[in-house]
Amino acid sequence: MSTHYRACHLCEAICGLEIRVEDGRIAGIRGDSEDPFSHGYICPKATALADIQEDPDRLRRPLLREGSTWREIGWDEAFALAAERLHAVRAQHGADAVAIYRGNPNVHNWGLITHANHFLKRLGTRNNYSATSADQLPHHLVCLWMYGHQFLQPIPDIDRSQHLLLIGYNPMASNGSIMTVPDFRGRLKALQARGGKMVVIDPRRTETAAVADEHHFVRPGSDAFLLLALLQVILSDGSARPGPDGVALRGLESLPALLARFTPELAGERTGIEAETIRRIARDFAAAPRAACHGRMGVSTQRFGALCQWAIQVLNLITGNLDREGGTLLTHPAVMGAGPDDRQRGSFGRRRSRVRGYPDFSGEFPVAGLAEEMLTPGEGQVRALVTVAGNPVLSTPNGPRLDAALAGLDFMLAIDFYLNETTRHATLILPPTTSLEHDHYDIAFHRFAVRNTTRYNAPVLPKPEGSMHDWEIFAGLADADARIDGGSAPAVASPAQMLDLMLQSGPYGAAAGDARALSLAVLEAAPHGIDLGPLRPSLPQRLCTEDGGIDCLPPLIPAELERLWQEPAVPAGQLLLIGRRHVRSNNSWMHNSHRLTKGPRRDHLLAHPGDLAARGIADGAEVLLSSRVGELRVVVEASTDMMPGSISLPHGWGHDKAGTRLGVAAAQPGVSANDLTDELWLDELCGNAALNGVPVEIRPVPASPALQSPGRSGG
Ligand SMILES: Nc1nc2c(c(=O)[nH]1)N[C@H]1C(S)=C(S)[C@@H](COP(=O)(O)OP(=O)(O)OC[C@H]3O[C@@H](n4cnc5c(=O)[nH]c(N)nc54)[C@H](O)[C@@H]3O)O[C@H]1N2
Ligand SMILES: Nc1nc2c(c(=O)[nH]1)N[C@H]1C(S)=C(S)[C@@H](COP(=O)(O)OP(=O)(O)OC[C@H]3O[C@@H](n4cnc5c(=O)[nH]c(N)nc54)[C@H](O)[C@@H]3O)O[C@H]1N2
Ligand code: SF4
Ligand SMILES: [Mo]
Q1: Considering every ligand atom, which ligand is closest to the CA of 49?
Q2: For ligand 2, what atom is nearest to the CA of residue 167?
Q3: 3-state secondary structure of 413
Q4: Same domain for 479 and 514?
Q5: Atom of ligand 3 nearest to the CA of 10
Q6: Cα of 581 to ligand 4 centre, how many Å?
Q7: C or N terminus of the chain, fewer CB within 10 Å?
C-alpha cells in the first residue's frame, strides 16, 4: 500500500487529496489535512476520480471510425492519419477550413496548457473556439479594458472581508469560480463569526442563498439594472470613496451623469427587487469596512454580461475596495502571474467572424457562431474540426444545430478519453492518460485563488504501457504534421521541465532573489503544497494600461448603457430559463460514475408552483419545454425556491444521442439545456453565449396514445 498527495484537478477549488493505492488500484481518497490552503476539505466528486480510473467505457487506445463501426489502431498510425487528413483539408480549402474547440478541462490539466499550441498553432487557422465564450469571457474583456490585461482579475479576499455581495454565483454547489476558494462554507462561517455578512442575488434560492444573511430574487437577465442602480445610489449619496490611492482613475468623473437615469425605481421594475431594498443594499455595501462584490455564471452568461462585469468592477472601485485587504485583490502566483512583462494581455475585436461578423477575443471567436461557420457555404467554410477535452454538442447554445453540422464535416479529430455526444462524430479519437497517471501543477487556478499557494504533485499511478499523455499526443501530432512537409517538429521539454524554469525565474525563484528560491525540487519535497501568504495590494505597479491608470469608462460602455436603456421589459407571464449546477455533477462528463449519479434525480426542471398552476401542470409531471430553437420533454418539480417567472434546468445532461456508450448515464440520460439555448441569444457586445434568461414556454404533454420516455423530441 502507498499513500500519495495530490491537488484535485476537477474544479477550480484545487483541494488537496490524500490517495491510498493498493495493488495498483485506488483504495481510498480523502482530504489532505496538511494542505495549507484546503485544510482537508473535499467534495464528493474527488472520490469519483477512482471511477474515472476504473471506468471500462474510458478509451485507452486510439479509436478509428469506419462508417458506423469503431476499431482500435496504433499511435503512429493514428498520428500519421490525423496529420494527413488535416493537411488534405488545408491544402484544398485553406487553413481556416479547420476549426479548433478547446473545452473546460484544458485549464485543469496542465499538459494541455503547456503543449497544445505546439500542434494547434501549426494548423494556422483563425477559427479558434473554446468554452470561454460560453463562460467567463466578460471578465477577461472588462479586465483587459480597465486594467490592461485579461488575467488581471481582482479576487474577493473572503478571509478578511466583512461583506460579500454575490450575484449569479453558487459556490456552495460549484465550489467557486474565478475565485479559487476551497471550503467556501468554512470561510463563510468564519466571516459570519467575525460579524461579517453575505448577500446573495439569484432567481433561485440556491444552496448559497440558504447560508446567506440575505437573499433577493432577481428577474433573470435584469442584473445590469440592479448594478447600475447600486452605482447610481452610491454616487448620488456622495458616499463614494474611489481608490486605490495613487492610481489615475480615468473616466470616473463622467459616471454620475451617465448613470443618473438608472434609478432604483427603474431597477425595481425590471429586477423585481424593491427600490428601497436596492438603496439599502447599496448603502450597506458602501458602509461596510471591507467589502467585495463578485458575479459569476448568472451574470456572465446573459445578454448584458460584459456590462454587469464592468459594473461589478466599478462598484468595488468606487467603494474603495479594489486592491484593498478584505476587498478584491490581485494574486501573486508562483508562475504565470499577470503583469506588464508578459505577453498574454489579450486583445479584442482584431478580427471578425466570417458569417455574422462577431468580434474575436484574444484570437478566439464566440462558440455560439461555430455551427454557422460549418453550415454556411462559401470561401472559408469550416470543413474539419479538432476538439480537445470538450463536448460542445452538450455545452454550447443550440447543441442540436452543432450536432447536425458535425455530421457533415470532412474530418474531425477528438483528443478525449470518452466516446460521447460530440466525439462520436470524429473519425479519430485520441485518448490521453488520466490525470492520476501524470504529474500535476495547477497553472490556471493559483492565478485566481483567494490565497497565494503553490503545489506540484508526482503521478499517483504509473503510466500504462502503450498510453500517451495529452502533451505527448500534441508532440506526436506536431511531428507527424511536420513530416508531411519533409521536416520535423522542434523537440519539446516536458511540462515539469517547463515548470522548473518558470518557478526559478518567477517571483519566488532564486532569480528574483526570493528567500524561498522555488524550483521543481523544492516543490517535490513539499507534496502538501507551500503557502505563499495572503493576497496583497499591488496597484498601480501591476497595471498594464498605456498610461498606467485604470480606465473606469472603456470606450464601448456608453453605447452598452444605451442598449440597456432601450431594452424592452420582459412581457408579463414570460418564463425565463436559467441554469443550475450540482455538487455531484461536473459539466457534461462524469455522469458515468455511479457513485455520483445515484440517489434522487438531479436533471429535472424546477419551476414556481404558481407558474405551473397557471398552466394546469402538476408537480412531478412530464412537460414540454420549448424555446425558439427546440423542444424537449422533462419532469418538472414545483419549488418555492424559484422566483415566479424563472425556470431552472442544469446543463451537461442529454446523453441519449445515438452512438455513444455512456453506461450509467444511459440509465439516467437527462435532457440537455442546450437543446433550448439559442445561438442568436448573445451578449451582443462580445458574443458571449447568453445561457441564462432564455425565453421559454412549458405546456402539459398532450394526451397521446404513444407516450415516449423523457428525451429530446424536437430541435
Ligand atoms: N446551458 C448551459 N451551458 C453551459 C454552461 C451552463 O451553465 N449552462 N456552462 C458552460 C461552462 S461554464 C463551461 S466551462 C462549459 C463546459 O463544457 P465543455 O467545454 O464541453 O467541457 P466539459 O463538459 O467539461 O467536457 C469535458 C470533456 O473533456 C474530456 N476530458 C476530461 N478530462 C480530460 C483530459 O485530461 N484530457 C482530455 N483530452 N480530455 C479530457 C471529457 O471526457 C469530456 O468529453 O459548458 C458551458 N455550457
Ligand atoms: N459541482 C460542480 N462544480 C462546478 C462545475 C460543475 O459543473 N459542477 N462547473 C465548473 C465551472 S466550468 C464553472 S464555470 C463554475 C461556475 O460556478 P457558478 O457561477 O457558481 O455556477 P452556477 O452554479 O452555474 O451558478 C450560477 C448561478 O446564477 C444563477 N442565475 C442564473 N441566471 C441568473 C441571472 O440572470 N441573474 C442572477 N443574478 N443569477 C442568475 C443561477 O440560479 C445559479 O445559482 O463551476 C465550476 N464548478
Ligand atoms: S471541490 Fe473541486 S477541487 Fe475540491 S475535491 Fe471537489 S471537485 Fe475536487
Ligand atoms: Mo466553466
Answers
A1: 3
A2: 38
A3: strand
A4: no
A5: 7
A6: 11
A7: N
Taking phi over 0 as left and psi of -120 to 50 as alpha, with beta for the rest, 346 belongs to: left
Q: Which residues of the chain have pLDDT under 50?
A: 707-715
The pLDDT of residue 669 is 85
Ligand 2 centre to CA of 299 (Å) is: 9
Residue 705 confidence (pLDDT): 57
pLDDT for residue 601: 84
Task: Determine, yes or no, domain membership for 602.
Answer: yes
Residue 483 sits in the same domain as residue 520: no
Q: Is the peptide bond before 644 cis (omega within 30 degrees of 0)?
A: no
Residues 6 or more apart in contact with residue 480 via CB below 8 angstroms: 79, 80, 82, 83, 84
CA of 206 to the centre of ligand 4 (A): 18
Let me know whether 480 and 595 are in one domain: no
Atom of ligand 3 nearest to the CA of 43: 6
Strand locations in 495-639 (E):
530-534, 550-551, 575-578, 605-607, 622-626, 631-638
Q: Can you tell me whether residue 156 is helix, strand or coil?
A: strand
* SS3 (DSSP) at 242: coil
Residues 6 or more apart whose CB falls under 8 angstroms from that of 177 comprise 12, 136, 169, 171, 296, 297
For residues 590 and 622, membership in a common domain is answered with yes
Q: 27-83 pLDDT, tens per residue?
A: 999 999 999 999 999 999 999 999 999 999 999 999 999 998 999 999 999 999 999
* The pLDDT value given to residue 664: 52
Q: What whole-number distance in Å separates Cα of residue 480 and Cα of residue 472?
A: 12
Q: What's residue 657's pLDDT? A: 66
Q: What DSSP state is assigned to residue 280?
A: H
Task: Give yes or no for a contact between 2 and 18, defined as CB atoms under 8 angstroms apart.
Answer: no
What pLDDT does residue 659 have?
A: 58
Cell of 146: 480597465
| Residue 710 pLDDT | 47
Q: What is the pLDDT of residue 210?
A: 98
Are 81 and 223 members of one domain?
no
Give 117's contacts (C-beta < 8 A, 6+ positions apart): none
CB count within 10 Å of CB 111 equals 24
Any idea which residue has 496538511 for its cell? 34
Give the whole-angstrom CA distance, residue 345 versus residue 362: 8
Ligand 2: which of 104, 136, 172, 174 to mutate, judged by most atoms within 8 Å of the beta carbon?
Answer: 174
Q: Does the N-terminal peptide bond of residue 203 adopt cis geometry, omega within 30 degrees of 0?
A: no
CATH number of the domain within which 610 lies: 2.40.40.20
CA 291 from centre of chain: 24
Domain that holds residue 640: 570-714
* The pLDDT value given to residue 714: 35
Residue 154, beta-bridge partner list: none
Q: Which ligand 2 atom is the nearest neighbour of the CA of 201?
A: 38
Question: What residue spans of 319-415 are helical by DSSP H?
Answer: 370-375, 392-395, 399-407
